Amino acid sequence: MGMMGGALSKGIKVSAILVGMAFFYGHAGADGWENTLVIGVRGDCPPFAEAGKKDEADTYNGYSVDLCKKIAKAAEDELDIRKVEYMRVSAKDRFCKLKSKKVRMLCGATTVTLKGLNLFGTSMYTFISGASLMYLPALNRSVRLETVNVGVLEGTTTSQTVDNILKRQTDIDFKAFPKTRILRLPSHSACLDQFATQGKDALHVYIADREILLALNRLAAKRQLKLKVSSQYYTVEPYALFMHKDDHDLLNLANKTLSGIFKTEIYDIYSDNFPGSRMNISLRHLFQFQQLPEGKPLTECP
Fold it and tell me: CA-to-CA distance for 94 and 295, rounded, in angstroms?
C-alpha cells in the first residue's frame, strides 16, 4: 500500500473506498427491542468518543457521538423509539456486547473489516484515519535502552497489525535497540500513565490511529509529558457505525441520516471536534460521494 503520509491529504485510495462502499451498504431491522435504542459508546477514544461517569447522553461527547445523537433523534421521530440509553463499552468488549444484543449500535472509532462485515451490519463510512506513532523524542537521539516498549490498545485492528506497522514505519530506528517488547494496554488513556512510569514497564512508543494520538498528546502536554506524534499514516482505517445484520430499519435510517448530514452539517461537526484542523481532501471526497439521492420506490419485477 505504501507510506500513508500524503495519502489521506492528497485523496489517494479514494477509488478503493468507493469500491468498498458497495460491499457493505447492505440491509440490516432487529425485532424485540421494544422501542429502545441502546448505544454502546467507547469511553476513551477522543476526539471520536469520550464518556463521563454516568451513562447519560450529556456526559458523552466526540465526533462519532455527535453523529449517533442525530441518528437517535431521527429514530425517535421515525421509528417510534421512546427510550435512548447509553452504555459504555471498551475496545475489547464492544463486539461481544453488540453480538449479545446488550447494545443496538456501536459508537466510537470502529474500523470496517471483512470479518466485521460478515458478522454485523455497518453504516456508511463516517471517517478515515490510519495508524501512526507517538513516542519519546529522545528515542531518535543517543538513548541507551536494552528494550523498547511499544504499546497498543488491546482489541483493536492496530493491535493485530502492530508487527507490520513496526516494519514499515520510518520514524524510529528500532535496529539501534536490542529488543522490542509489545505491551497491550486496556485503554488509550493508560498509555499516558505508562509514558510517565519508570522501570521495565515504562512506555517508549504508542501506536494508534493518528487523530486519537493527537488528542492524547494534548492531554500529555497538560501532564508535562513531552511526546511526539508522527506525521505519517501507516494503515488505512475506515470507520463506520456497527449494528445488527437484521436491524434493517435502524441501519436504513442511520444511512439516510448520515447522507443528509454529509450534505451540510458535517463541516460544523468536524470543526467542533477537530478545532484548528482543516478537513483533508479524502474526507471531503468521502462525504461528497455519500450524499446519496433519495431515489424512487422500487417496484416488483413482472
Answer: 34
CATH code of 280's domain = 3.40.190.10
| pTM, full prediction | 0.85
CA neighbor of 31 nearest in space, from 248, 243, 241:
248
Identify the band that residue 93 occupies on the pLDDT scale cut at 50, 70 and 90. Answer: very high
Is-contact 131 210, C-beta < 8 A?
yes
Full residue range of the structural domain in which residue 221 is found:
131-229
Helices (H) and strands (E) in the chain, counts: 11, 12
Cβ atoms 60, 45 nearer than 8 A: no
Exposure class string for 77-92: b at 16+ Cβ within 10 A, else e: eebebeebebebbbbe
Per DSSP, which regions of the chain are E strands? 36-42, 44-45, 49-50, 83-89, 105-107, 121-129, 131-135, 147-153, 179-185, 205-209, 228-229, 237-243
Count how many domains the chain has.
2
- At position 139, the amino acid (one-letter code) is L
The answer to whether the Cα torsion of 111, 38, 153, 232 is positive or negative is positive
The CB density around residue 57, as the number of other CB atoms within 10 Å, is 16
- Tens digits of residue pLDDT in 44-73: 999 999 876 555 556 889 999 999 999 999
Question: Final residue of a domain: which of 191, 210, 229?
Answer: 229
At 18, is the secondary structure helix, strand, or coil? helix
- Return the percentage of the chain with pLDDT > 90, whole number: 71
Query: Do 245 and 213 belong together in one domain?
Result: no
Residue 46 lies in a domain: yes
Cβ atoms within 10 Å of 295's Cβ, excluding its own: 6
